[in-house]
Amino acid sequence: MLESSIAEGTPAGRADGRQPGELRPLRFQNHFAPHATGSTLVEWGNTRVICGVTVEETVPRWMKEQGVVGGWITAEYSMLPYSTLQRKARDISKGKIDGRSQEIQRLIGRAMRAALDLEKLGARTIWVDCDVLQADGGTRTAAITGSWVALALAIRALQTAGKLSESPLLAPVAAVSVGIVKGQVLADLCYTEDAGAEVDMNLVMNAAGQFIELQGTGEESTFSADQLAGLLTVGKTAIRQLLAAQQAALA
Length: 251
Known about the structure:
Largest sheet: 6 strands, mixed
Structural class: alpha+beta
CATH architecture: 2-Layer Sandwich
Helix content: 25-40%
Low-confidence stretches: 1-12
Number of helices: 7
Strand content: 25-35%
Number of strands: 10
CATH class: Alpha Beta
Shape: globular
Strand order of the largest sheet: 1-2-3-4-6-5
CATH topology: Ribosomal Protein S5, domain 2
CATH superfamily: GHMP Kinase, N-terminal domain
């Protein structure tokens, strides 16, 4: 397995020793799922997510019926029963996907579609499966950041196999959580910080500095325009570090 990492630091400041804008240690273990076209295990602090990409040489029926040119990319997200302190029941045992999982997998799908030229992909469907092994905050941002690495590996495999003459990849995509905890702007919230945050926000951006999605919420609180600007500034800096780590993982 290939590995890339952001070295762990030990500055003072937060409960885990990080400075306000510092990311948790990040590592990608590529080719984690050998039967996937592209895969990586992203270990981000104590959050661990397997991101696997598989390819079907067909498109959804609605695309055929509407005559839509190109391919499609969709995502599924789930938290394994042992990923949290208390066992989380599988969705299949409840007979439906819970609202949070549905929201996150739609977010992952939108983020990956923004990273790909669907016409250049051709008439095929890419499935992105994200399975959370261990959750300690930021599972959706880890899933998006890892999914882009897995997607890039899958596209590379399709090109090697002669199924794509040129890469349909656009600008790389990454995501990070930011928030306000006890009045301070922090990047990459762990679970305890996320649970106590006055403001919680997720940023999805590409390497061109463009926003794909912003999810910002006051948790029994409000936030000002200046605080929003501070959140975005810290988030953008973190995204640049994540993009560099992705490129190192693919080097």
